Amino acid sequence: MDTNVLKTFIAVCEYSGFSAAAKELGYTQSTDSSQIKQLEKELGVRLFDRYYHKINLTEKGVLVLQQARKDRKSTRLNS
User: Fold this and answer.
1) What is the 3-state secondary structure (H, E, C) of the chain?
2) Rounded distance, CA 67 to CA 43, Å?
3) Which candidate, 23, 37, 39, 26, places its Cα nearest to that of 71?
4) Angle at Cα 75 formed by Cα 15 and Cα 45, nearest 5°?
5) pTM exceeds 0.85
6) Closest Cα partner for 68 from 43, 37, 51, 31?
7) Quick one: CA torsion of 47, 73, 28, 58, rounded to 10 degrees?
């Protein structure tokens, strides 16, 4: 799994949206959106419920976020 995609996923969760995360990461909103779609396809689960301009994590999304944060923390400790 690409660490940049996980970084994007965490940012989208923390900033509660694709546009805010993209701005923070220096990406375009479409790049963030594409990376999340790639992650959803790779995992075979929907990570967000999307309502117009709002997103909410699904139950699976919450689990993936917990694991991604754990992996990020572990990677930082091993660096």
Assistant:
1) CCHHHHHHHHHHHHCCCHHHHHHHHCCCHHHHHHHHHHHHHHHCCCCEEEECCEEEECHHHHHHHHHHHHHHHHHHHHC
2) 13
3) 39
4) 55
5) yes
6) 43
7) 10
CA 31 from chain centre, in angstroms, equals 12
Q: The tokens 């701005």 sit on which residue? A: 23
**What's the pLDDT tens digit per position in 28-78?**
999 999 999 999 999 999 999 999 888 999 999 999 999 999 988 777 666
Q: Which residue, chain included where needed, has tokens 């990376």?
A: 35
